[in-house]
Amino acid sequence: MIKVIKKGGEREKFNLNKIKKSLIFAIEATELSQEKKNELVEKITKKVLDFVKERKEVFTAEVEAKILLELEENCPEAAKLWREYRAQKQRTASNEQQTKDSEQ
């Protein structure tokens, strides 16, 4: 079982569905045909899985870099959208943490 090392040091089970979800979010917003979108999600998901499959642990940043590299090579428009998605997710997580900290 592959473990992902998060930015804060915590570890969790590698979840391919999370990767697919973020890819779908970015790729769906492009003007590619639905067939091409599906092919791209599957292609990049497979590349990420190949990248991590021989490892016991992988850093989140490594997985993110692999996703971004594949998106840049295959669909720069989706790469831009994926970066925006990640930035929004990080802002949301930061805001939630600040709310928790202020409640304590």
Structural overview:
- There is one protein chain.
- This protein is mainly α.
- The chain has one domain.
- Helices cover 72% and strands 9% of the residues.
- The chain is built from four helices and three strands, in the order ββααβαα.
- It has a three-stranded mixed beta sheet with strand order 2-1-3.
- A hairpin with a 5-residue loop joins strand 1 and strand 2.
- Helix 1 runs antiparallel to helix 2.
- The radius of gyration is 15 Å and the shape is flat.
- The mean pLDDT is 90.
Low-confidence stretches: none
Count of spatially separate domains: 1
- Number of strand elements: 3
Element-by-element helix/strand order: EEHHEHH
Give the mean pLDDT. Answer: 90
- Biggest β-sheet, characterized? 3 strands, mixed
> Quick one: overall form?
flat
Terminal CA distance reads 36 Å
Instruction: Give the radius of gyration.
Output: 15 Å
